[in-house]
Amino acid sequence: MNALRAAALVAAREVRERARANTFRLSTALIALLAIGAVAATTFLPDLFEDDPARVAVADAGTPEGLAALLAGGSLGAELRVTSVPAAEDARQLVLDGAADAALFAGPTIAFRNEADPTLEAQLTQAYRLASLPAVLAELDLTIEQARPLVDPEPIDVTLLEPPTGEEATDDESGVAAAAVILLLMSLTLYGSWILNGVVEEKTSRVVEVLMGALRPWQLLLGKVAGILALAIGQLAVGVGSAVAAIAAFGNADLPSVGIEVAIAAVAYGLLGLLLYAFVFAAAGATVSRQEDAQTVAMPITFTLVAAYAISLTVVIEDADGIVARVASILPLSSPLAMTPRLAVTDPPLWEVALSLALLVVSIPLVIRLAGRIYAGAILQTGPRTGLLTAWRSARETLDR
Questions:
Q1: Could you tell me if 68 and 58 are in contact, meaning their C-beta atoms sit under 8 angstroms apart?
Q2: Are 311 and 329 in contact (CB under 8 A)?
Q3: pTM for the whole thing?
Q4: Which CATH number is associated with domain 54-151?
Q5: Which of 20, 304, 307, 394 could bond to 377 as cystine, CB 3.0-4.6 Å?
Q6: Domain boundaries, the chain
């Protein structure tokens, strides 16, 4: 049988068995629901938490002409809901009845029910003064142009003594960067644990001994990783498709705008990172014979991912052009998590992006070769955990079969 065909049969078997499992179906449905929920949240949550406009009752008697229109126009800051009433007593009554948050009437007087709102007070005061301005200028026999230096003075220059060295990331950019890091970490750890646990399960049940009678170690390793990665890509595609369908359905999802390069980077680094860490997890799983030891052997890999995640979520987003962020986005073990958020908040030099991708791509076959040798030397070992050096030495005998 052709060697690659044998690996393809292993991959097909892996896809078939895992796709039938209820856990896979439930997790796929959950990913779709989470994607739809995230889009729905951006559509409906802002409306739920948005404060209603303040309600103001304005008495027409004795107040400047056009005061209510000036307040309702929204030109003085926050939007207001204005109700015009004939007299001051009517405005007071609306506040007492809870139909208005404040009343403005001749005096001038601003009335609140129980507690004054300083922001609303300042806005009403400014509106009253502006509405009164034409009458005041007429009494002084001044035109608007003559009084402009008093009512609209030149702004005072503002100088930064220690200006920031780079551009600050906007809230949308930081949000997109944080979301990308979280999704990438979840993908790498989730699908990596699938591979690790799958290897341990086959080793524990002795299925691997039967398979090794007809296959070489690298064929089994390649097939298992390819099968699980195919399922992973399928699940991620379901999530993306659900999000796109939700956006089309809701129509007005308030999603942050991201550049096409950020989306491409997230996909590219996600796939390359999955490929790199998949073989690392597989090799780690081959060194243990009990499911109870799986988490222990995964700890160094998980710690590496969590460390890269912490750096990406804090240092990279806060100081994307700093030395730590630049190094983390170039090194193969951390670049899958660090480069995408860096692209979201800044514009790194093209040579750094190219070097990062080149190192990641070159490191993948090296990791595959190393992981394959450890897998070959440890997969048939039983008993306590097999050391990496022991697995490396044992690989020669297994590979010469």
A1: yes
A2: no
A3: 0.67
A4: 3.40.190
A5: 394
A6: 3-44+170-399, 54-151
